[in-house]
Amino acid sequence: MPEQRMQNEFTINDLPTYNPWVKRLLGLEEINPRAKTEAEIKREFEVEKWGGLLKWINDNNTTPGIGEVDELYIKGNTEVMAYYNNEFVVSTYKEIQDKYVDLVFKSISKYLPAPAIVELGSGYGSTLFNLAKKYLPEDQLLIGLEYSSTGVEVMNKVGNYEGLNFRTGHCNFFNLNLREVAIPPGAVFFTSYATMYVPMLGNSFVGAILDGKPKIVIHFEPVLEHCGEDLFGLLRRKYILFNDYNRNLLGVLEDNDKVAVENVQPALIGPNALLPASLISWVPVEIAKK
Question: Of 28, 98, 199, 283, which residue is 20 to 30 A from 258 by alpha carbon distance?
C-alpha cells in the first residue's frame, strides 16, 4: 500500500466500515463478553492463539523465522483502520506493526546499552524479536517472559532459528514473581499489550518488577485513564470495559511510593483504532534520586 495512505484522510465516521466493534459497542450487534480470568487467558493464548501457531509449526515440521510467524498470526497484508499520530489511518497490519516497533526502539534507545532487554508478557516474541533484528546488536541479551507454555515454545523455536542471544521463561501477571528468573541488574524492561489482560493490577505487580532491579520500565499499553469524554474517548472506554481489560495501570504506578513515573504519552498508536497504546515509563525511586 502506498505510503500516502498513512495520512489524515479518514475520520471517526469511517471507523464502522473497518471495525465491527463499533456496532457491538452501540448494541446493534450482539456479542457475549468474557471476563479476563486466568482460565480465559489460558484458553485464548495457551490453547487457541499461540497453541495454534505451535500446532502449525509442528504439523508442517518447519522452523520458521519471526517474519513467517508474524504473517501466519497477523496476516500482514490485511487492511486495517489504525490510530497513529492522533490520526485515523488505513494501512496494512504490517505497516502499522513496523511503526510500532520503531516507537518501541525510539523509547528504549536512550537507556541502551543495557545488560538485557526484558519483555514481560512477550507472547511468541514478535515485538522483542523484530526489535532485535531491526535495531539491536547481535550480542544483545533478550529475555522473553510469557504466561503460556505454547508461547514460550514458539519463542524458543523462532529465537533459535534467528540465531538471537535470548532466554525465555514464565511469568504470570496475576501473581508475578521474577526472583527465580536470571535477570541481570540494570536491564531495560517493557510490556507491550500485555498488562491489559489483568483487569486490576496491585502493588505486588510493581514490587515483583522492582525485584528485577530494572534501569527503566516502559509500558506500551491501552490506558483507561487516557480515554477522554469525546466520542472517540467514550468508545475506547467502553471497548476496554466491555472486554474486561485493565483499568488501573497508571493509577497503581502513580500511587506507589517506590516508583517515579518519568514519562506519560497518551494513545500513541494501535492497529485497532479503539485500542491505541499509551506510553508510561517509570524507574525505581532510588534511581530517580541519583
Answer: 199
Task: Record the cell numbers describing residue 101, joined without a space.
Answer: 516497533
Closest CA to 190 of 95, 139, 256, 114: 114
Q: How many domains does the chain have?
A: 1
Decide if 148 is inside a domain: yes
For residue 32, being part of any structural domain is answered with no
Rounded to the nearest 5°, which phi and psi values hold at 176?
A: -75, 135
pTM of the entire predicted model: 0.95
From the list 95, 136, 143, 94, the residue with the least C-alpha distance to 122 is 143
Dist. CA 69–CA 56, nearest whole Å = 10
- What pLDDT is stored for residue 6 in this prediction? 57
Residue 187 lies in a domain: yes
Measured between alpha carbons, how far is 58 from 54 in angstroms, rounded to an integer? 6
| Range of the structural domain that residue 163 is part of | 37-76+106-266+274-288
Based on its alpha-carbon atoms, the radius of gyration of the chain, rounded to whole angstroms, reads 19
CATH number at residue 190: 3.40.50.150
**pLDDT tens by residue, 246-262:** 999 999 999 999 999 99
Determine what percent of the chain is predicted with pLDDT higher than 70. Answer: 97
